[in-house]
Amino acid sequence: MAGQSVSAKSSALAEPMAVTIGRHAFLLLFVAISIWPVLDVIAISLRPGDKLRTTELEFIPADWTFESYRQLLFEQPFLRWMFNSMVVSAVVTATGVALASIGGYAFSRFRFVGRGQMMVAILTTQMFPATMLLLPLYLMIAWLGLINTFLGLGVFYVSTALPFCVWQMKGFYDTIPSSLEEAARIDGCSRWQAFTKVVLPLAAPGLVVTALFSFMSAWSEYLVAAQVLQDTEMFTLPLGLKSFQSSLSTQWGLYAAASILVSVPVVIVFLVLSKYLVGGLTVGGVKE
Amino acid sequence: MAPTNGRRTWLAAVTLAVTTALGCGPTQSDRVVTLWHQMRPGDRAVLEDRLADYEQATGVEVRAVYKETEELRSGLESAVLVGYGPDIVYGPSDPVAVYQEIGALQDLTPWLGAERDAFDPKALVDLPAFDDPGKQQLVFVGDRFGNHLALIYNRNLIEAPPKTTDELIELAKANTIDADGDGRPEQYGLVWNYTEPFFVMPFVVGYGAWIFEDAGPGEQPRPTLDTPELVAALEFVAGLRSKHKVLPLSADYEAAEALFKAGKAAMLINGDWSWQAYFEESRRQQKAGEEDAIDAAVAPLPVVSSTGVPMGGMVAPKGYSLSVAARGERADLAADVIRYLTGEETQQVYFDRQKVYPSRLALRDEAAIDADATLRASVEQINTSRLMPTATAMRATWDAMRPPYQQLMAGNLDAAEAARQMQSGAEQKIATLTTSIEPDATAPLVTVLGLAAFVGVVAWQWRGIGALTKDLKNNRLAYLLAGPAVLLIFLTVLFPLVFNVVLSFSNMSLQNFRDWQIVGLHNYQSLFAGDGAARFWGVFFKTIFWTVVNVALHVAIGVALAVTLNGPVRGKSFYRVALIIPWAVPAYITALTWRGMFDAEFGSVNQVLGLFGVSPINWLSDPTNAFAACIITNVWLGFPFMMLIALGGLQGIPQDLYEAARIDRATRWQQFTNITAPMLKPVMLPAITLGAVWTFNNLNVVWLVSNGGEPADQTHILVSYVYKAVFNLYQYGYGAALSMVIFGMLLLFSVLFLNRTKAVEGV
Asked: What is the pTM of this model?
């Protein structure tokens, strides 16, 4: 690791000024594009009187107020929804990552009957237009007696996040040379030990990607939640946000403020995890 | 198997399998009543207070949840199909006929029949019984009247509201001001929502036209949209924009509202639900001492000068219906809740707090109404408005009117042609609604072949299954690792999948909701042959284009950013967080924000483009531009995710490969194509495959940015096309067939793509 950062530094010095400027210009351009609409959302959240649009171009409204945030935090069960979402998302992330990390490993390293078919088959579950699933989904949730349970929600979330997670983990495992495991086996590791001690740490970026994906798919899911959860106390954030909506009279101030607050945990989770994504562990020094 | 028994056998088999497998079934507590409503925020607060009192007094818990129209309907459908769903629904009266048509409602007469006379008769809806058309049932009890449009005007610009349309034009002209003379006025005389035909109805009524011919009881009304009166109404409306030039070039609901609140529109046509917000905004602006503060007031819409008829519009009661999910004791409880919520005391509270016009005659206190100028104007407007029909054809008619209306308001269609298209569209859609498809020759074939195919596949794969069972023993670890994920994935999707396969061969629709049956290949035939076919292929190729462009840009931008960020740059953590933001903020609001940014006159996209000398682009009212706007929004939403994966993938590339390349004097581009790209491939492939699948099926962005396919249904991709077919015309069988086709195409694509890229292969 130390050697890595030294080499990064020396190559930074070695890079021509023009390239450095180019990098920053490119990144800054996309930073601007990324935050441009979000500045608008912030403006909506600060604007009094539920105005989605204005005819002025302004980043901070002249008559700005924190009223929406105050209402959200003190008059709406927003913190309750946030708590519900955190619990659901955390459990879904943990389960999803655990199942995907072992499932992906099986698909990457083992040859077994039905392997190819299973891999394609799990993808097919993503191919159906979600709107057509509304009715059968509700029928099924009702039959199973899962209405108003977080268990019902969790099972659905894990199962919708898994196809991507399994495939993604398989992809990451594929980039790790099997020679590493073989070396570990020769050193006396069992197959399981080789997996947990050698492969899994090297697949950390993959685990981070799957974790973030699982987290987001639970954090922002609306369709299933609307079918399962029927009690305001049990709402997750997307349902809570949706309750500020209504045909032609949405409470835009609350909606925008909630959207901003909802993004904060995502950014924090990302910040915590992303150190494994940039300048993290690298498979240096392994020659095939 | 007889085709008539087909559906029951299928459904029963699946139900049985699912319920026995999990050993449980639906249960609903007897002391909890579920109420799904469509109330606006201010009304919701009253509802909550009233229900709290009720719960305290009776010990019955009422779970009130706001639901969108489609969700509310799918709850009622479930109540019909499995007896589980909301006990009470609350909303406007117009979809009630649909609910009754599928047999989702109960007769309220036993509970409320005695009080009938206390209500305005227009607030009660009686419809023929689902199982006995000769019998009338009370299926809807209104607690209010409203949803009507009126004129909101800014008193600081207009002293007295116009009494006639001639005065309206005069006032509007005087208030359309182009101070800097660039041909784009800064202030308009009049504005309203150009996207929903509901907003043009006052002109229609004022010109003596109506959308339906009165039909006998139990008959579907015949649309009358291509009449001289209606053409005259549309001509007048188009003239306001093109001849008198008092309207902005484009305006949806939000834009119209924003213009009025900013004092940039002197008059606005909008519904009773919105008025309080304009008064509040006026008070706020005045209190803040704003120079050009608005002063909103409500007046009845004027009389059409050429006909002498007031611009009436439509009015509808809102109220409660009892669903078939409320059985036994809970039916009594739920009916009691309805009686309480439509009772005098509750309506009085709504009147006092929300100024709603009550449905109980005893509460229509003229003195109280006279004392309030807004209420007076509102009641006057109600009295000239016509009752919104509660026919199943209503939604089909709106649907048929929408595209020509939008085209008319965009100046692309003249009034006569718009009226003609409205009429033929409405006739066609109503015909679709009312025809019931009978099983054809392929029906028994499909049933038999379905079973034969199943048996065939099992027989064909028998050896495979044998090999699998043997391999289960030898390769136990592999199955143990992959098993949990695979089983969990299939646990939840198997039933919806089978349900849709069966449905796609069926005639499930409004006509045949309960008694649907397998009708054969009809749905598939009508996809690829007949009127819809040309449309289908057009939308199909647009969807391919949409998917390719989106995914290509997602990957290109995502990888480029990841590679740039992975090099030696300072401020990495700042960039990382800033670039992930489009993914972190809920897409619903950012998509709508983008829609606002694409506004031709006030949107920031055109203003930024203007800095580079680009002349303003009419983003949302031109089909090509609107589609481009959808793509831009979706690219913005999707690139951070690809960047994230690429960043992850880059960590796995050994640095010494680059060092070796540098020693060989490889250029940066050569390093990228020879090292980075191939090493990223295994990590990017799953994301690209699934990204394509998700993008293909991404309903939200198209729906939100183009507001449901605007202009004139020309920005659809296949899923939004399915959505319209299913939810506006209730063609469940057809929608399922379309979904199966989408499914098939995506499956084909994935298999080909994965084979070509060898993504399934492992190490």
From this structure: 0.84
